[in-house]
Amino acid sequence: MAGTLYLCATPIGNLDDMTFRVLETLRGVDLIAAEDTRNSIKLLNHFDIHTEMTSYHEYNKYDKAVYLIEKMQQGLNVALITDAGTPAISDPGEVLVAECQKAGITVTSLPGPAACITALTLSGLSTRRFCFEGFLPSSDDKKARKRILEDLKDESRTIIVYEAPHHLKAVLDDLNEALGDRRITICRELTKKFEEARPTTIAEAISFYKDNEPRGEYVLVIEGKSLEEQEEEKRQSWQEMSIAEHMKYYEEQGISHKDAMKKVAADRGVGKREIYQALLDTEV
């Protein structure tokens, strides 16, 4: 009988956030696959866990996945942990999960700390709809970075981004250029002694970090574009057309003159009578 892969969430700062279920699992599995064994040994020692460890990280994620799956096919149970947080979120663990599914290996996830969710709940921004971007492409890969930022430009959901301290200033500049000045909550040192959630704007944050050197790992929670703002931008784009051109746009799609007037009025945020009068004035 094949073994199971356990995705074990570990603390992102405060060791008291370790769950009893994860502790029991780490003690009970045959092998722990860790992102950095040198880092994880400190965690295991703290909780007096002596299970055998092996490395599983970005640079061996494909070859090591084959090895781990072979072990599980032999009946061994494996726990996957990262340096902090939930495995497979912005993490090579996603590759192992996908390969386990292909191989028919059972995968289960043990819930626990996740920096993205912790930051979102602290942000004061909308939590009803959100998207997680993880780390943006490196500034060295300008094409990929620009494409992602362009995609986010019209995103109406709250946006969550991870960033390292030495890249924070650059990413704030890029966000300001791509998205404009938005509300943002900048979170750092989550669950630790000096935890901080700073509600501000992108422009104010750029100004603040000119005089304050970023320290710690950051989670940026960014306000999405409001639906009102999107509608206003649509109306503004229609204004670049004359009303006659706007009417022609719809009528060429086979829409009747009367229905085209309704659509033009709705697009421009005015009454149908105003469109009717404008067309009359054009004909005079």
Written account of the structure:
This protein is of the alpha/beta class. The chain folds into three domains: 4-113, Tetrapyrrole methylase, N-terminal domain (Cobalt-precorrin-4 Transmethylase, domain 1, 3-Layer(aba) Sandwich), CATH 3.40.1010.10; 116-225, Methyltransferase, Cobalt-precorrin-4 Transmethylase, Domain 2; 228-283, no CATH class. Helices cover 46% and strands 18% of the residues. The protein contains twelve helices and ten strands. It has helices at residues 20-28, 37-46, 61-73, 93-103, 115-123, 142-152, 168-179, 202-211, 227-239, 243-251, 257-268, 272-283; strands spanning 4-8, 31-34, 53-55, 78-81, 106-110, 130-135, 158-163, 183-188, 196-201, 218-222. Strands 3-2-4-1-5 form a five-stranded parallel beta sheet, sandwiched between helices. Strand 6, helix 6 (142-152) and strand 7 form a beta-alpha-beta unit. Helix 6 crosses helix 7, helix 10 packs across helix 11 and helix 11 packs across helix 12 (272-283). It is elongated and about 85 Å long. It starts with a strand and ends with a helix.
CATH class of the largest domain: Alpha Beta
Report strand order across the widest sheet: 3-2-4-1-5
Runs in which pLDDT lies below 50 for 5 or more consecutive residues are: none
Q: Counting H and I runs of at least 4 residues, what is the number of helices?
A: 12
CATH architecture descriptor of the largest domain: 3-Layer(aba) Sandwich
